[in-house]
Amino acid sequence: MSFHPSLLTPQAKAKKMMLWFAMISMTMMFAGLTSAYVVSKSRPDWLANFELPMPFFISTIVIIVSSITFWIAFSKLKEKNAAGVTLFTLITLVLAVVFSLTQWAGFSAIVAQGYYFTGAESSVTTSFLYVLVITHFAHLIGGMVVLLIVLANHLRGRYFDNPLGFVLAHTFWHFLGFLWLYLFVFLFFLR
Fold first, then answer.
1. What is the average pLDDT across 80-98?
2. Any idea what DSSP says for residue 7?
3. What is the rounded distance in angstroms from the CA atom of residue 93 to the CA atom of residue 100?
């Protein structure tokens, strides 16, 4: 059951379906990349002793917390609590920036250990890590743009009459969090 009648219109249903198709496409892309990772593990030049740096663990906690804060913002929207929506959407945006910074720190730690992502000093292991995380990061940039748009539209009072944009952003943000959790668990257990 929907909390707002505008979410039941054919246009709203079509937009939700388009988002789901996009998320399914992204999932298939990452499934292909992680499958290639598994197949490549049998190569003789694969780094067997590679460990994920601590910043990637921290970023995992941050993305989980950001999902919680955006869920709270969504709850505040349902309650028509404008100040709460603003606060928790801003917190989510700040956490997205923190996530980005911890990802950067993770990459810096990998390079500091002497593992490079491209060039003569790179390995197939770090190149795969680079492709997986940078691809997720590109999607995260899109998510951050969505958060900025949602915040701007909320400040204009657009979501109390028609919350579709917020609902779509909410779904996409949780998808990004789930996608990072999948990648993190995958990289942690399949080193």
1. 97
2. G
3. 11
- Structurally, at CATH architecture level, domain 5-34+56-189 sits in Up-down Bundle (1.20)
Q: What's the pLDDT tens digit per position in 14-26?
A: 999 999 999 999 9
State the amino acid at position 25 in one-letter form: S
The pLDDT value recorded for residue 191 is 66
What is the separation of C-alpha 33 from the centre of its chain, rounded to a whole number of angstroms?
16
Q: What is the pLDDT of residues 20-51, one digit of tens each?
A: 999 999 999 999 988 988 888 888 877 777 78
- Conformation bin of residue 68: beta by default, left when phi > 0, alpha when psi is -120 to 50: alpha
Contact at 8 Å (CB) between 58 and 80? no
Q: Mean pLDDT over all residues of the chain?
A: 89
67 within 8 A of 132, measured Cβ to Cβ = no
pTM reported for the whole predicted model: 0.89
Query: Helix 82-112 and helix 54-78: axis angle, to 10°?
Result: 170
In the chain, where are the structural domains located?
5-34+56-189
- State the Cα torsion 33-24-170-67 to the nearest 10°: -30
Query: Which own/partner pairs from 181-185 qualify as long-range (CB within 8 Å, at least 24 positions apart)?
Result: 181/60, 181/63, 181/64, 182/30, 183/30, 183/34, 183/132, 183/133, 183/136, 184/52, 184/56, 184/60
